[in-house]
Design a protein that fits this description.
Helix content: under 10%
Mean pLDDT: 85
Number of helices: 2
Shape: globular
Distance between the termini: 27 Å
Largest sheet: 9 strands, mixed
Strand content: 35-45%
Radius of gyration: 15 Å
Low-confidence stretches: none
Structural class: mainly beta
Order of helices and strands: HEEEEEEHEEE
Length: about 140
Amino acid sequence: MVSPSLSTLREKQGTWLLDLHLDGRVYRFATKHTTVTDGINGNTYLYREGLEDFMLDLQQYGDTELSVSLSITSDVDWAKLDAQGHRLNRQKAVLYRHFEGMNLYQSKKVIEGVVLSPSYGEPFKESLEITIARSAAI
């Protein structure tokens, strides 16, 4: 399958999917409630609505580093997890662009990297703000 172009990635009918890894658990968010199969083992993943829609604007620093900033509103108590020793900073994150009819394997992986400088407040009241960064050093 041919990967979508940058202009296709920006089309409105697509859905952004985000996998946030935190100490062995994966938190899945999307710009709209979505269920996706992996396309390999038949596993099904539920992506909860909460990832705020955004215009793709990858920030590039030199030839080796890319980053994207995102906002997520959810019921996850990130402050409580942090207080329990589960630090989101430097954890793995993957952002996909998904179109109806695709499985996760077919979805376009836009960036895979680590979370940098997360900030959060109360669940449902304040968004989790993160930057996903990819570089040759990661």
